[in-house]
Automatic annotation (TrEMBL):
The keyword Hydrolase does not apply. Keywords: Membrane, Transmembrane, Transmembrane helix. Residues 414-547 form the GGDEF domain. One of its GO terms (molecular function) is diguanylate cyclase activity. This is diguanylate cyclase. One of its GO terms (biological process) is cell adhesion involved in single-species biofilm formation. Its cofactor is Mg(2+). Its EC number is 2.7.7.65. Gene3D superfamilies: 3.30.70.270, Tetratricopeptide repeat domain (1.25.40.10). CDD domains: GGDEF. The keyword Transmembrane helix applies. InterPro entries: Diguanylate_Cyclase, GGDEF_dom, Nucleotide_cyclase, Rev_trsase/Diguanyl_cyclase, TPR-like_helical_dom_sf. SMART domains: GGDEF (SM00267).
Amino acid sequence: MLERAELVRSADPEQFNELVGQLNASIKAASDRQRQKLEYLKAYQLSFSGRFDLGIEAAKTLFENSTDIETKVQAGSLIVNSYAATRDFSEGLRYLNQMIGLVDEVGDPEIRHHAWAAAGSISNHVGQYEQGIRYADLMLADSPSARTSCFAGALRMEAFYNMGQLSGRETEVRTIIDECVGAGEPLFANYVRAYHARLMADRGDRNGAIVLLSQHLDEVEATKYPRVIGEVYATLAEAYLAAGDYEAADRFARGVMRHATAMASSAPLVTAHRVLYESALQRGNNAAALAHHINYFDANSAYLNEVKARALVYEQVLGETREKNQTIELLNRENQVLQLREEASALATRNTQLAIALLAVLLGTIAFWAWRTKRSQVKFQRLAETDALTGVSNRMDFSRRAEQALAYCSKDGEEVGLVMFDLDEFKSINDRFGHATGDWVLQEVAKVCSDICRKNDRFGRLGGEEFAFLLVGCDLPSSVALAQACRKRIAAIDTTSTGHAFAVTASFGVSGTRASGYDFLTLLSRADDALYQAKHAGRDRVRTHGLEADTTTVAAN
Ligand SMILES: Nc1nc2c(ncn2[C@@H]2O[C@H](COP(=O)(O)OP(=O)(O)OP(=O)(O)O)[C@@H](O)[C@H]2O)c(=O)[nH]1
């Protein structure tokens, strides 16, 4: 029913009213969208029946509140048309500006075309003919129905006529008339027919023009639409005047004036006064000619003022729109600036975070490399200090540590002993059982001797098969006792795990700080002397240096 009502709304007002009545009765069953459609049709009904103020009010409510874009655009189009009909062009243009941006979102082509038709019509009304043509062309490029082609064609012709560019378009004019007739739109067919008649008269075919319009005069009058009647009558009046039929010219001119209230400040009214004036003048009725000329002058001034006023209205609304758009643009820019600022601050935060992360990575890398370097240093230092075969201090490390300990003990006179020993006949072990067995012996010796060391004692391999102890806090007898203990442990080494059974012995030389002082090299050299004596005395024994030698010598076993 809604669709049917929409279809017949302009062509069959009676059926339309009936359908709206029925729809009103069944409103309870309607969906939201259907309700809005019905509201639109009721607004249309009000405007169509001449109650424009009520129609506009209802359409405005719908335009503001409708959630359905199609109904919104339909309501907008109705507002624009109604304001144009009541000659409130400024309000019409304001609503056009609000509505026209929504048209592209409308799916139904009929509704789109209706909106563009309203836009084209009001554009022509305010003298913006190029815009009128543009809207008409949008309709023609959008697969128009015959009815839409008729509307669009009429808009184009109206614009071209008013721009003085109608000549040469006779074929197009004929086609449009045919389209309007075919679409069952006598009003528009006759409106364009008036332009056709003008074109014919312009090229000298006044009779043709008169015949064309006269043939359809009943049809024109049946439309009851003053604008069309005015155009047709004015064209006929002009044609009859040019043809010298003053009576007929006067008749049609007066016919225009019968509709004067609906035609105020219009081109047909100006034409009508001019025809009456010229007709009177041609017939020598100067008094009447003067009276008509005054009327003609007034009508022309009023018309020109109206044209100017409409152009001003357009400029004013255009200015308002620009201002509004500029404000919107300004707000958009401000928004953009705010957005950019936010982005910049987010970027700065991200940069800071990145910098912190980078720094952390850098510090981590530095720490890692520092740790690795330190570890390598420690490793190299240990390697540099350790004898690779036995794992005890090497000569260099032993000497350094011994010197440190001696320097420390020398301060408070604490006694220190130095025990040096050398394996006996070691060459013969190597020779008899091989170098690997010799190495094994060196490792075993280092192990048994390390085991008897106290916490502060130092033990090291001086080189080859030569080892030494530095005994902090040990006088000479204590040092000799440790040497003896060590000698016994060496002699007790069980070599059978090497596959050979042989004896391992060592000869010991002992020196002490009480007799030799705290100089390491002196102590070492004196222990070495004692060791030499031990070797000389038959090996596997302990000897002390110097005077103490006889008292502390302990024989082997
Ligand atoms: N297997 C092994 N042999 C070594 C090592 N360092 C030195 N030697 C050997 O130790 C032997 C030392 O021999 P000598 O200096 O003649 O002394 P010796 O045979 O112990 O005789 P005396 O000291 O007089 O009892 C040499 O044959 C060296 O080659 C080592 O690290 N491993």
